[in-house]
Amino acid sequence: MDDSTKALYDLYSPEDKSDFFPAYIYLKYLDHFIYHALQACGLPTKEREELPEADIDEMLEASVQRVAETSADFATSVYHGKVVKLKDALQLVTQKGDLSLITPEQVIPFKVAKDIILKNPESIAVGSCACRSASQKPCLPPPMEVCLIVGEPFASFIAQHNPTFRKSSQEEAVSILEAAHERGDVHCAFFKKDVGERFYFLCNCCNCCCLGVKMWNQLEGAIPILAPSGYLAHVGDDCNGCGSCDGCCPFNAISMGDDTAVINEVKCMGCGVCEDVCPIGAISLERDPSNGEPLDLAELKGKT
After folding, report:
1. Which is nearest to 187 in space by CA: 199, 203, 167, 170?
2. CA dist list (Å): 233 to 51, 229, 245, 276, 281
3. What sign for the dihedral angle of Cα 239, 245, 247, 252?
4. Domain of residue 280, CATH code
5. Angle between helices 154-161 and 20-28 (to 10 degrees)
6. Helix crossing, 20-28 with 3-10: angle to 10°?
7. Which of 111, 160, 213, 268 has a 20 to 30 Å separation from 81 between CA atoms?
8. Helix-, strand-, coil-residue percentages of the chain, each rounded to 5
9. Would the pLDDT of 152 be above 90?
10. Residues spanned by the domain of 267
């Protein structure tokens, strides 16, 4: 057993060792996991060039089925995301020391897979977006290296065992996040039971390719795949109705009224894309208790 696999195995307590192998195949075959997830959702996929062994592929399908069966409720979901604005996403990739936060349900409203436990957070792996790779018609031009695995043992394991990932630096991760925000992509912090019931992954993707965002939009939030950021977009009185924000929202929460932008508060996930798109600063994000609390590490650490 190589060092990165042993480190992954050693992560689990004796009573949770059964989660090791699902995590192993998920991280090693992430693109195939997403392929099966897209297929299960009835979304078009392109044909895979290489296939894992048949028994591995069957396990990946079973893992996707397990996610689907548990996803209908906050109490049972084992794989989910939290939308984060750029400021909060940057904190997740710039920590300098180990961190252990038992995240309140006001922040991560799920019962399992909700904590921020970072070991060696300066260890980061960057990889190709599995959603874009598997999509039949991804957006063009598709920036591919936008997925960030944060902390050990996950970053070293995936960089060694998944050829679509490589080790990165915190500085590069910051650049990836800033470029994604400038493109109008969404930052989502993902949590998974199999990886120690914790945060491990930052997705930075568009609503035309990202499976989580696409399914959230298609299901209109009926199944809690994502939690909102804790913010809500607000249009100020100085909006001149220029239309610059029209169509920019990854969650389709902005439309144009007669002479001003209008926010659909039910659809708004507080991602912050619209805030920087507005040329006169007429849109701002404001804290909104109905959308939970932000995943703001500085604030959460201050409360512990």
Report:
1. 203
2. 43, 11, 12, 11, 12
3. negative
4. 3.30.70.20
5. 50
6. 140
7. 160
8. 35, 25, 40
9. yes
10. 231-287
Number of separate domains in the chain: 2
Tens of pLDDT along 245-288? 998 999 999 999 888 999 999 999 999 999 999 999 999 999 99
pLDDT one-digit tens code per residue, 97-115? 999 999 999 999 999 999 9
Cβ atoms of 50 and 73 within 8 Å: the answer is: no
59 and 161 part of one domain: yes
166: phi then psi, degrees, rounded to nearest 5: -145, 160
Res 113: pLDDT? 96
Rg (alpha carbons) of the chain, rounded to whole number: 19
pTM, rounded to two decimals = 0.95
Tell me, rounded to whole angstroms, the distance of Cα 182 from its chain centroid: 17
The pLDDT tens digits of the residues spanning 195-231 come to: 999 999 999 988 888 999 999 999 888 899 999 999 9
Helix (H, G, I), strand (E, B) or coil at 246: coil
Q: How far apart are CA 45 and CA 39, in angstroms?
A: 7
Asked if residues 82 and 188 have their Cβ atoms less than 8 Å apart, the reply is: yes
| Tokens matching residue 15 | 């009573």
User: For 72, which DSSP code?
Assistant: T
Phi then psi for residue 176, to 5 deg, are -65, -45
- 7, 147: one domain: yes
